[in-house]
Design brief:
The protein is of the alpha/beta class and 258 residues long. 28% of the residues lie in helices and 25% in strands. It has helices at 45-55, 69-76, 98-107, 130-139, 191-198, 207-217, 237-242, 245-251, and strands spanning 11-17, 37-38, 43-44, 60-65, 85-90, 116-121, 124-126, 144-149, 158-161, 167-171, 180-188, 222-227, 231-233. It starts with 10 loop residues before the first strand and ends in a 7-residue tail after the last helix.
Length: 258
């Protein structure tokens, strides 16, 4: 193994796919949001995620499930036909939120403090090079690394107002200068106990909104990895309707040519 490379056997893929997908209603009255069909082949979104992780050698996966979990379990089973091993953990209703799902898996001893975790939100489609991302994380000796993308375009117009309401400046669908999160992160298992302590007395905890800021404020080594890869948040009905099947097939053909 060359210097800077990472052994993928030591990485656990953690896919958050338990949410009810309220922004995708009425579609998610019938589908788990990670199971909505995309591309001309109409494969579930989650299959693209599984194939991407498998392509980069991450074969040990855990799905954090809840809403319509049976759709996911019936389709993927133990992962054998996709060349991976999949375990399932149902969310605990006493601790909600994305971090709550991860903590619940830790409390059930499905995640360990000696692992490197690839946290992947189940409504994100990307062709990011996972290996380079994890190598960056390891080389920085980070406790957490967040995948970021620059040049994000806001889907609405943005106004700058005077105190009396007069519009000083207006721009339709501007690009944000600062990098934005693409809802993928690497996390060292040693952070799980801190997350567990942070959750004490709380009913809900968000990974990106609560845990990452907490680690930063605690002076832990948290890094951002900026990628120019394609990524798309499929988490709303509007976004789903705009996702062109031809684009999906073109960008992700490499996942189905193995």
């Amino acid at each position: 193994m060359l210097c800077g490379e990472i052994r993928m056997e030591g990485v656990r893929g953690v896919v958050l796919c338990g949410g009810p997908g309220k922004r995708l209603r009425p579609i998610t009255y019938y589908f788990q949001k990670a199971m909505i069909p995309i591309g001309k082949m109409q494969k579930p979104l989650l299959e693209y995620i599984v194939r991407l992780l498998r392509f980069y050698g991450i074969k040990n996966l855990i799905f954090l499930v809840d809403y319509k979990a049976e759709q996911i379990i019936n389709y993927f089973d133990n992962g054998l036909r996709f060349g991976v091993n999949i375990r399932y953990v149902y969310d605990d209703p006493s601790l909600k939120g994305t971090a709550g799902s991860i903590i619940n898996a830790y409390r059930r001893k499905e995640l360990g403090s000696d692992e490197t975790l690839l946290i992947y939100y189940g409504d994100i489609l990307t062709n990011m090079n996972i290996q380079k991302f994890l190598e960056f994380h390891k080389n920085k000796r980070a406790i957490a690394t967040v995948a970021l993308s620059s040049g994000f375009t806001v889907r609405v117009g943005v106004a700058d107002l005077e105190s009396d309401g007069r519009i000083r400046y207006f721009q339709e669908k501007p690009k944000i200068e600062k990098p934005v999160s693409i809802a993928i992160a690497a996390l060292e298992g040693e952070a799980l106990e801190e997350m567990n302590n942070l959750a004490a007395g709380r009913r809900e905890l968000d990974f990106m909104g609560d845990v990452i800021p907490y680690l930063i404020n605690s002076k832990k080594d948290v890094y951002g990895y900026v990628t120019d890869a394609f990524w798309y948040d499929v988490g709303s009905t509007e976004a789903y309707e705009k996702l062109e099947p031809e684009i999906v097939d073109k960008i992700f053909s490499f996942l189905f040519s193995q």
